[in-house]
Design goal:
single chain, about 210 residues, alpha/beta, Rossmann fold, eight-stranded mixed sheet
Length: about 210
């Protein structure tokens, strides 16, 4: 059983918390105001703890960044000491919203949030994944008609191996996981977010992923 801290308790964070808890991990949701937050309902899954984000980052073995990408760099840089020596899984996309609230432009063109995080947190092993799909696909990839792809970007091989195991707990088959290489490859998958708004405007929030077909 691994201790996993998830920063952000929105749809992405809560969805991941429920599935990882059901897989047997000890999960803490890191929120801004723990006294005003309740753990999400998870059916028969074990209880999910709620704590402030600093405590969550300090006490977890693995930390998942599910905070809004446009403010994540500042937020996580403030937790540098707590994240030192940890594995940080970044599932966010750093974008500026268009007028309709959907992603418009990238915050870090020519780079990526994952690269920015790795540079700001040199003692933390950053791995980028699960940022090329709607949130419900992250924990139920088998529900899509076409097998989806979960891309991995990161400089540490062992960290990516650990994340691959977590993806398995979320329902991802090994054949659906594509290791792209170092952290700089995250700029490719983060740019894929620009495909999402036109699809959503046309089809609504029907589950889909930007995947590799062979």
């Amino acid at each position: 059983m691994t201790s996993i801290g998830i920063l952000g308790a929105g749809r992405v964070g809560a969805n991941l918390a429920g599935k990882l808890s059901a897989a047997g991990h000890r999960v803490t949701l890191g929120v801004r105001n723990p006294e005003q937050s309740a753990a999400p309902a998870t059916g028969t899954a074990p209880r999910i703890a709620v704590a402030d984000q600093r405590t969550t980052a300090r006490t977890a073995d693995i930390v998942i960044n599910a905070t809004p990408g446009d403010t994540a760099l500042e937020r996580l840089t403030a937790l540098r000491a707590e994240l030192s020596g940890k594995l940080l899984v970044d599932v966010s996309n750093a974008t500026r919203d268009a007028d309709d609230g959907l992603p418009g432009d990238l915050c870090y063109p020519g780079s990526s949030l994952a690269e920015q995080l790795q540079a700001a947190l040199p003692d933390t092993r950053v791995v980028k994944t699960l940022n090329t799909m709607l949130f419900m696909v992250m924990t139920a990839p088998e529900t899509l008609t076409t097998p989806p792809t979960a891309y991995l970007s990161g400089d540490d091989h062992n960290a990516k191996k650990t994340v691959t195991g977590l993806l398995g707990d979320l329902g991802w088959k090994p054949a659906w996981i594509e290791d792209l290489g170092g952290i700089t490859t995250a700029r490719a998958t983060e740019a894929m977010i620009l495909v999402v708004p036109p699809v959503l405007r046309r089809h609504g929030f029907t589950p889909f992923a930007v995947s590799l077909a062979r």
